[in-house]
Amino acid sequence: MPDVRDTYRLPADSDRPEPPNLDAQRRTRPRVTGRQVTTRRLIGALVLVVPLVWALGRALPVGHDIVNRGGARLIGDLLGQALSPRLDGDFLRLVLEATGTTLAFAAIGTAGALVIGLLGGLVLSDVAWTHRPPRTVRAVRVVLRGLLVATRSIHELVWALLLVSVLGLDPLVAVLAIALPFGAQTAQVFGDTFDGLPTSALHSLRNAGATTMPAVAFALLPPASPLMLSYAFYRFECAVRSTVLLGAVGVGGLGQELVVSLSSRNWDEVWTLIAAVIIVSALVDAWSGRLRADMAVASCSEWSAGAAPEPPGGVAPRRSRSRWARWSALAIIPGLVAAWLASGVSLSGLTSSRTRALTGGLVEDLLPPKLPAGGWSVVGDAVLDTLAMAVVAMAIAVLITVVIAPWAVTTRAQGGAPGSLPARIARRMAWALARIGLLVLRSVPPTVWAVIALLALFPGILPGALALGVYTGGVLGRLVAESWESVSPVPRNALLRSGVPGALATLAAVVPASAHQLLTYTLYRFEICVRETAVVGIVGAAGLGRLLSENLNLFRFPVVSTLLIASFAVSVSSELLSRRLRRAIRA
Amino acid sequence: MTASAPVVVQLEAAGRSFGGTPALVAVDLTIRTGERLAVLGPSGAGKSTLLALLNGGLQPSHGTVSLFGEATAGLPARTRRRLQRRVGTISQGLDLIEQVRVLHNVNAGRIAEWGTARSLAALAWPRTDERAGAALESVGLDWAIHERTERLSGGERQRVAIARLLVQRPELVLADEPVASLDPTRAAEVLTLLGRVSSDTGTLVVTLHQPQLARDHCTRAIGLRAGRLVFDTPIAELGADQLDQLYARG
């Protein structure tokens, strides 16, 4: 990162030629001492190791049976059916229909999220307002920011559970459960995107007398549109995965069929459905990945790190004219119409008197919050279980990443791998296997991993952590492999040129940069992982999610609201912690 | 410069083509210890190719290149690496590892010398030894030893790269447009430092775009145009007509 002091040097300084005086350049900024670096490393090691040891201790209590021997046989049955999935016409038709439903829910949910995101983003961004926004807007903003944080700190699945109790098993549940938390996230990203754009065009339109809305539409949206389009497809990719997940609450699509087949132990159907989930996920990934590559605006990893990438040098990103991007954009509207017709979503559910009555009832039921039987200690235990589960899950995910991700890095930037033809073919095979492996890990929803883990293990932290860890490993592995592609090969080549052997050059020049990225993404995923413990909790693992779904099933709404507040607190504090740590490792 | 000083690099009718396109054609060149050689020429003249040949990382497709008396073509990897350790290469400062402390980048200059075990130890627990400290001090960066490299300014990073050269103690320094992105003051500073690196026992080969910098800092200049050597002259005899011819269009 170039030093601003170099860029914004006072003219008087640079106009006067000076003889080289190195002492003059010893800046007044505080010096970093060796002791500080050592201390920081020790603290860093403690921050990583202590929670891990604690979490492992909590997840593996001494003297308890962990493995459920009866269940282990079921896993054997499951694996035994792997090569004979159910492929008869009736079932395939059902799978196809479920796939359509999943895609339709995801598409409409994403569209909703984008509408929320666009409006929210405009309100949140500073550039959309002349000078200083009016007081009303500023007040709305404070409220909106709070609402957005609260909205996205509740997991999609928890949203779905709450919405089911108001709307019943309406397709609208799936759409809203996607649109609300995703919209909140999107508003944040779009707001940052708008603020990151060059404002000169907007200013000149304003100075020419244009009013806010047309000026924004003319000057802000075109430069932002490639970013927004590629983000939309990235969100769609996530939405497909989330919709499968939402099947667990019974709103239809592939996820629901998967849960039904799993719980009735029709292993042959499970395999067909898993294959369908993986194929759909792979196609959507490839599509959206291709689009982002064409638009050259952002990699998935940049989006995921939570911030819109700054256009390099403050220049508006190149607007790609690729055929792929154009067709994708053209397909949006017909695609949405088809999705709307196919899914049978109707907004009438939102305004019906029954919904209104139930919503009113729910709000009344939720208030005032009450503690569950057993009081604070039950909530506290659940919070600790949740955190322990997330920590163990991250450890598993990092393990998976370190083993698989190095093979999944695409090295096309370096002009093809060197070496003999067989070596290159082997490398290529390893790459494909690693990519497919990661895809399978992240395409199978964590609920399914959890159900499988719960077949073999007794309910508790461990099966939940295992399920989340395997799933997160797939996500983290891909993010990290993508980010490793951007690790510069130049320092390593420089070392090679100065006579350093290859392996050593990799260790010295590539590993530190890679470790840095691994750490950043691990911290970032940890904050998501904490939220996702709700998912495995709902199928019976442990933690706040389990407590939440138990109490929802028993209609103990006052307890539910206490648990929601606790989840919110845990989620927000882990997000703050992760941000703080990410900032610390950048220092 | 004396004609009797030992020869560092010798090129005999050396040429290099990339996929049939010649980048460098039949260059004869002898560089002796203590020389500071400026390589001038328009973009695409083959300057970078020449430097890559001098480093031993790239083999000539015609003729021979000898580095410290050994022909670089067909050497076993181990021998080639041993030769390359004696050559220090610096580019526009882009070859630094951005995410690590300055000290780590400086120590990277000694990995070849240290060998595996010691390098790994230094990687896990960076060592401040006298050589690294002295190198950073002589480029005026002793205060930055524990800074993260990416937080330094462009000029400071350039000097970190020079400190890395200093600890490597190379006998031959190759600098590929080291001052292309720097203002005149900084450019002069970097070339002074590079001259200092090579002044003791070493030799400097630097590609430049500004003839004036060559006059100020070098002892000899060669001109490359379309892959051919067009002049090779002591710096005092570098004339305006030679330069006009070198940079002429068409």
Automatic annotation (TrEMBL), chain A:
InterPro entries: MetI-like, MetI-like_sf. Residues 99-288, 383-578 form the ABC transmembrane type-1 domain. One of its GO terms (cellular component) is plasma membrane. It is found in: Cell membrane. The chain crosses the membrane at residues 42-60, 103-125, 157-180, 215-234, 243-264, 270-287, 327-350, 387-409, 429-445, 451-473, 494-515, 554-577. It comes from the Bacteria. It holds the Pfam family BPD_transp_1. Keywords: Cell membrane, Membrane, Transmembrane, Transmembrane helix, Transport. Signal peptide: none annotated. Residues 1-33 are annotated as: Disordered. PROSITE patterns: ABC_TM1. SUPFAM superfamilies: MetI-like. Residues 1-18 have a biased composition (Basic and acidic residues). Belongs to the binding-protein-dependent transport system permease family. This is Phosphonate ABC transporter permease protein phnE. The lineage of its organism: Bacteria, Bacillati, Actinomycetota, Actinomycetes, Propionibacteriales.
